[in-house]
Recover the amino acids of this structure.
């Protein structure tokens, strides 16, 4: 189980996370929703170990996680709206580089297989700077999934994807993996709800809702947002 | 061994991207050739011995080449958040720093060889002394310059002032490298015995190891958000 306990995270004088706690079991997907600036991206950065916290901790199966620990980073896959690809390298070269760092096989067949999972096999030999935004996002997905991460952190992963790309990503997330934990932050309430088992809503760094996704609808979530905005 | 392999993987990625064009090397090469040419033109050879001035010119050109090129060590990492994903890979910060420094060192050696040839040719230094002795002086010097370029490249990336901050921060620290490097190289150009050079070379190695060690430790600190 991935758990966050009383996370506090500041950017200078701004408190980005204020006592946020959550728990996601193996094989489950947690949807994280909130308006711009609510703290979704910060939460994912803390979970990945990129961002230090002023208070609280992240635990995996009851053991505190240290972001500086390379072993932890090896278990996590991150997809965000920024692809993180090297523009001057081809799609296959990008994958080969990250595969080499993770000590994964990087033969041609393996790389093409990883790209094929996201419908991007034809892009293998094209330089990233010649790819469209959506094509880059597919390559980024392939890069983040190729080490079969135990924990998958997705920050607006549908950004730039065409309907086919979005459908493939949804299928990959539904298919999941043996005990994979997924944390998905998105503004697309309907899609996020459909993919999530549990839902957390953040507002100004605080958790305002933590509920099973099953009983929720996008309209109800929207209503929760609106009520929060009025209260604020 | 594992760490060294990762250092090589990171260095090779940088060099591969560099070879694809639009990177730092063309700017560094153009600077070195032009600077060597202009220096050679402005020196009154009747008053100043080309052998005496060749080494200081070489080291000053290398220093400015570092500012022009190595300071942009992390430019490629700005590609749509690539650096973030590099930091997310299960690789130590030391390996990233050493990989970046190693790539800088290769580029700097290309520039060094070119600068050496250009300066000796433009100044008309017929016999520049033992090439292996020059290499023995330039190797620790360029290691120090490459590591400092990688470190200050990251520092300037974090600053709003960007590249303009690099000379202000780096040059004072690099003065000893240029001083001892220039002294040692001058003696080789003047074909003095190695015993007159070895002391400066030992100091250059000390600076090189210092830049690599301290740079690596501070790099880790700088990349922790």
């Amino acid at each position: 189980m991935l758990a966050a306990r009383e996370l506090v995270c500041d950017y200078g004088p701004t408190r980005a996370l204020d006592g946020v706690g959550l728990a996601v079991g193996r094989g489950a997907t947690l949807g994280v929703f909130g308006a711009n600036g609510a703290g979704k991206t910060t939460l994912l950065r803390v979970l990945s170990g990129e961002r230090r916290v002023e208070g609280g901790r992240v635990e995996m199966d009851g053991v505190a996680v240290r972001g500086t620990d390379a072993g932890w980073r090896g278990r996590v896959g991150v997809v965000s709206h920024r692809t993180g690809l090297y523009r001057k390298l081809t799609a296959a070269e990008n994958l080969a580089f990250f595969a080499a760092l993770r000590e994964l096989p990087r033969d041609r067949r393996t790389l093409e297989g990883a790209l094929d999972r996201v419908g991007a096999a034809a892009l293998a030999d094209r330089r990233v700077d010649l790819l469209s935004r959506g094509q880059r996002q597919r390559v980024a997905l392939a890069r983040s999934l190729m080490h079969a991460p135990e924990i998958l952190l997705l920050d607006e992963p549908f950004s730039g994807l065409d309907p086919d790309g979005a459908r493939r990503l949804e299928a990959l997330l539904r298919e999941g993996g043996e005990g994979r934990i997924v944390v998905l932050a998105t503004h697309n309430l309907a899609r996020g709800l459909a993919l999530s088992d549990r839902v957390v809503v953040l507002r100004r760094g605080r958790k305002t809702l933590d509920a099973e996704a099953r009983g929720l609808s996008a309209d109800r979530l929207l209503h929760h947002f609106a009520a929060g905005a009025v209260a604020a | 061994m594992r760490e060294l392999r990762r250092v090589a993987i990171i260095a090779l990625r940088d060099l591969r991207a560099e070879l694809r064009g639009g990177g730092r090397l063309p700017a560094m090469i153009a600077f070195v050739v032009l600077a060597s040419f202009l220096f050679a033109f402005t020196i009154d050879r009747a008053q100043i011995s080309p052998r005496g001035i060749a080494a200081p010119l070489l080291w000053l050109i290398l220093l400015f080449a570092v500012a022009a090129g190595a300071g942009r060590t992390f430019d490629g990492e700005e590609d749509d958040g690539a650096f973030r994903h590099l930091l997310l890979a299960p690789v130590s910060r030391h390996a990233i720093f050493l990989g970046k420094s190693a790539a800088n060192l290769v580029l700097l050696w290309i520039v060094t060889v070119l600068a050496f040839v250009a300066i000796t040719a433009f100044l008309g230094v017929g016999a520049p002394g033992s090439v292996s002795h020059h290499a023995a002086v330039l190797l620790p010097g360029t290691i120090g310059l490459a590591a400092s370029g990688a470190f200050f490249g990251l520092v300037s990336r974090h600053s709003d002032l960007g590249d303009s901050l690099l000379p202000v921060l780096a040059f004072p620290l690099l003065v000893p490298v240029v001083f001892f490097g220039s002294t040692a190289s001058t003696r080789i150009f003047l074909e003095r015995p190695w015993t007159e050079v070895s002391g400066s070379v030992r100091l250059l190695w000390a600076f090189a190891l210092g830049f690599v060690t301290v740079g690596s430790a501070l790099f880790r600190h700088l990349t922790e958000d």
